[in-house]
């Protein structure tokens, strides 16, 4: 995936940090599904969709919803008219988002490469840069975070331990009670075996 941004610069949201070296990009993008969000803070359709995408992203990456962040990274590719507009929009979005710097030629390169003609558009990519979904806007609207499972399988990520919050709650309850149930089963089984053995011995003595 880093090859897509070789020699380029990405900005960390709401910070002055730049993610530009091959090593940094490799660590940021390795073994992750990448979302390229082409949008604008001034576009009416984007203003409707962006809050959905924000919630979608948080539910997959924020510790409030999941035990650990899923293998997902998002890069905002702006169609804002000014740098101030881009910055103002990003301030309302998750800090984990990355962004193409305003006015960077990479924006146009990505639009052409992925045939983006209108916004909002969300291109979903495998870690090797192959396209999973050309525009996932409707899928995200319809399915919410559940669609990440499909992308994860398509991307063949190494770590397949992703759990949605509700799944984790169920798993946690099960993981806590299972050892108790197993222990109780062993104790019950042992007690039954001991009782049967004693009964058998008593039967032999009486005979």
From TrEMBL:
Q: Which Gene3D superfamilies match?
A: Glutaredoxin (3.40.30.10)
Query: Alphabetically, which GO biological process terms does the record hold?
Result: photoreceptor cell maintenance
Q: Which GO terms describe its cellular component?
A: mitochondrion
Question: Which part of the chain is the Thioredoxin domain?
Answer: 1-163
Q: Which InterPro entries match?
A: RdCVF, Thioredoxin-like_fold, Thioredoxin-like_sf, Thioredoxin_domain
Q: Which PANTHER family match?
A: NUCLEOREDOXIN-LIKE PROTEIN 1
Which protein, by its recorded name, is this?
NXNL1 protein
In which organism is this protein found?
Sula dactylatra
């Amino acid at each position: 995936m880093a090859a897509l941004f070789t020699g380029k610069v990405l900005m960390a949201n709401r910070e002055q940090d730049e993610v530009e070296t091959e090593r940094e990009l490799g660590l940021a993008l390795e073994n992750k599904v990448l979302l390229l969000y082409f949008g604008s803070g001034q576009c009416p359709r984007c203003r409707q969709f962006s809050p959905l995408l924000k919630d979608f992203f948080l539910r997959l990456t924020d510790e409030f919803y999941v035990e650990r962040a899923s293998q997902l990274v998002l890069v905002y590719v702006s169609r804002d008219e000014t740098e101030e507009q881009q910055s103002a929009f990003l301030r309302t979005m998750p800090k984990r988002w990355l962004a193409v710097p305003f006015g960077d030629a990479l924006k146009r390169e990505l639009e052409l490469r992925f045939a983006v003609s209108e916004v909002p558009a969300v291109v979903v990519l495998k870690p090797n840069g192959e396209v999973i979904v050309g525009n996932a806007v409707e899928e995200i609207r319809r399915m919410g975070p559940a669609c990440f499972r499909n992308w994860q399988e398509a991307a063949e990520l190494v770590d397949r331990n992703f759990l949605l919050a509700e799944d984790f709650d169920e798993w946690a309850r099960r993981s806590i009670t299972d050892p108790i149930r197993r222990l109780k089963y062993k104790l019950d089984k042992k007690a039954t075996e001991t009782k049967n053995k004693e009964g058998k011995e008593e039967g032999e003595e009486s005979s």
